Amino acid sequence: MSAIAPEHPSAAERDPRARRRKKLREVLPLYVAISPFYLLFAVFGLFPILFSIVLSLTDWDGMGDISFVGLAQYQFLLADGRFWNAVGNTFIIWFLSTVPMLFLAMVIAFLLHQNIRFTKFYRVAFFLPNVTSMVAMAIVFGSVFSDTFGLVNSALTALGLDTVPWLSSPWGIKLTIAMMVIWRFTGYNAIIYLAGLQSIPTDMYDAAKVDGASMRQVFFRITVPMLRPIILFTVITSTIGGLSLFTESQVLLGNSGGAGEAGMTIVLYQYNQAFTQFDFGYGSAIAWALFLIAAVFAIINWRLVSGRGDDAAPRISRKKEARR
Amino acid sequence: MTALAPIPPKSSVDEQPRNRHYVARGRVSTIVTHLCVIIGVLLSIFPFYWLIVMSTSTTGEIFGYPPKLTFGSSFLENVRNVVSSVDLLQALVNTIIVSTLCAVLVMFFDSLAAFAFAKFDFPGRKWLFVLLIATMLVPGSLSLVPSFILMSALGWVGTLQALIVPGAANAFGIFLLRQMAAGSIPDELVESARIDGAGFFTTYWRVGVPLLRGGLAFLGIFTFIAAWNDYVWPLIVLVDPDRQTLQTSLQNLNSVYLTDYGMVMAGALISVIPLIGVFIIGSRHFIANIAAGAIKG
C-alpha cells in the first residue's frame, strides 16, 4: 500500500490535517520507545540533583522543618579539617593506586600482545578481579593484611623482617586500600590497552623497523602516542573511580575510616555525615564539593594527557626528516 | 578498526621460519613473557584461592602461625553457621531477583530506545541523544541524599523496587546498543519491514532484537554483575534487616561476627561464586565488548 502512495496521493495525504495525524501516528511509537529512560531520569536523576542544590543550602536532618541557612554549609566545609583530611586521603590513595596500576596494565597489555598462546585464558584471569564484589574481597584483603595474623605479616616474620601495622597506621591503611584498587582494576585497564594495541596498524611498526628504530623508540614514539586517546580514557575513568572510592574503605575500616580517619575518603565522609549523623544539608554540600573537584580534575587530566601527546607527534616526523 | 586485528599473527608466522637464530631468541623471550604473565595471573587469582582456603578452615586454623595454605574441611560447618546467623539465603534470593529484573528491564528499555535512535527519524532526535549522553557525565554520588529522601516520600525505603526501578533504563546501554544497531542492522531490512506494513514495535521485535542479540547479551551480563555488586545504594536504602542484598548482608555478617573468620569467609564465598559463574559463561562477549567500548568511546 504505502509503496504506491507517493505516485497516487490518497485523499488523506492531500489534506494537511490528516497528513499531520498520519505523521503523528508514525512518530508516536518512537517517542514511546525512548520515553522510559527520560521519565526515569527526570524522576530519579534530574529531580534529586536539583533537590540536592536546595538541600545543600539548608540545615535538615530529614525530620521537622527545613530551615534555609544560605551558604553556611559551604562555609563550614571550607573550614572543616575532617573534610580536607578526606580530600587529602582520597588524592593520596588515588595517586598510590593509579600510577602503578596503569603502568602494570600497560606492561601486561604489551606482554599479551606478543602473540603468545593461552591469551584468552589470561584475559579472563586478569579480568576476574574486576567483576567480583568489592565487599567480599575487602573482607579477604582485611584478613590478608591483618596486623596480627595476616598472611603478609606472617610472610614478613618468616623472612625475619619487622611486621607492618597495615590496618592501624596512616600509611599502612592507604597502601592497603591502594593495593585493593590496583588488584581490582589493573586487568580491566590492561584489556583496554590491549584492544588499543591491536588497533594500531602494523605497517607503522614495519616502517619503524625499516628505519632502524629500537624497541624503546618504537614504544615511546609510536605505541604511546597512538594510544594517547585510550590512555586518556583510562586516566579519566581511574580518576572518577578514585574520587568516588567508598566500598574498600567502608568495609575494611568501618564508617569512621579507621584510626585517625586515615582511610576516610570523600564519599565515605559524605555517607558518614548524611546517613550516620543525618546531616542531609552538609552531606549534600560535600557531594557538590566532590562534583566540583572531579570536574576540575577531569579538565586538568585532559590538558596533561593531550598536551604531552601533541609534543610527541611532531617529534616523530622531525626525526624521520633528519634521517633522510 | 577492529577488522585490522587479524593481521599481526600472520606477519609473525611468516617471519619465524626465515631465521633460526631469530626463532631461538623468540622462544626464550616467549618463555619469559609467559612467566611474567603467569606471575600476574597468580596475583590476580590468589585472593580467590585464599578466600576458598579461609572459608574451608576453622577460625583457629586461620589465626594460626605459620598459616595453613591448603584447603581445610570445615566448609559445611562454616556455611551452617552463616545460615544460622544471618538470613543469607533470603539475601541471595533478593539479589537474584534484583539483578535479574534490572538486567531484563535494561535490556528491553535500552534496546527499544536504541533501535528508535539508530534506525528512525523523528523531530528532536539529535538533541535528545545529546541530552542522553550528557546525563552519563553526572556522578551518582551527587544524588545519594536526595534520592533517599525521594524514596522515603514514595514509601519505597526498605523495598527492593528502590533498587530496581531507578535503574530500569540507562544511558550507557542505550548509547552502546545504538552504536551497534547503527552498524549492524541494514536499513533495507527496516525499510522492507515498513513496506510489509509492520509498525515500529513489530519491526523492533522481528528485526531489531534478533540482530542485536550479541549486544543484548553483553548488556544483560554487564547489568546483572553491576546490580549484583552494587553496595552504596542498597546500604542506604535497605533499612529493614530482614530485607537485604548479599552485599549488605555480608557486611552485617562481617561487622557483627568479626571474630568468626571462617564463617564470614564462607558467606563471602557464597556471594562471589554465582557471579564468577555468570562471568565465565559470558566472558568472551563481555571482555571483547568492554574493550571495544573504550576504543570507540
UniProtKB/TrEMBL annotation, chain B:
GO cellular component labels: plasma membrane
Subcellular location: Cell membrane
Keyword annotations from UniProtKB, A to Z: Cell membrane, Membrane, Transmembrane, Transmembrane helix, Transport
InterPro entries associated with the record: MetI-like (IPR000515), MetI-like_sf (IPR035906)
PROSITE patterns: ABC_TM1
Keyword Cell membrane listed: yes
Pfam families the record matches: BPD_transp_1
Transmembrane segments: 28-52, 91-115, 127-150, 156-177, 211-228, 261-281
Gene3D superfamilies: MetI-like
Lipid bilayer topology: Multi-pass membrane protein
One biological process term in Gene Ontology: transmembrane transport
Principal subcellular localization: membrane
Source species, domain of life: Bacteria
Residue ranges annotated for the ABC transmembrane type-1 domain, each copy included: 92-282
Family stated for the protein in its record: Belongs to the binding-protein-dependent transport system permease family.
Protein name as it appears in the record: Sugar ABC transporter permease
Organism per entry: Brachybacterium alimentarium
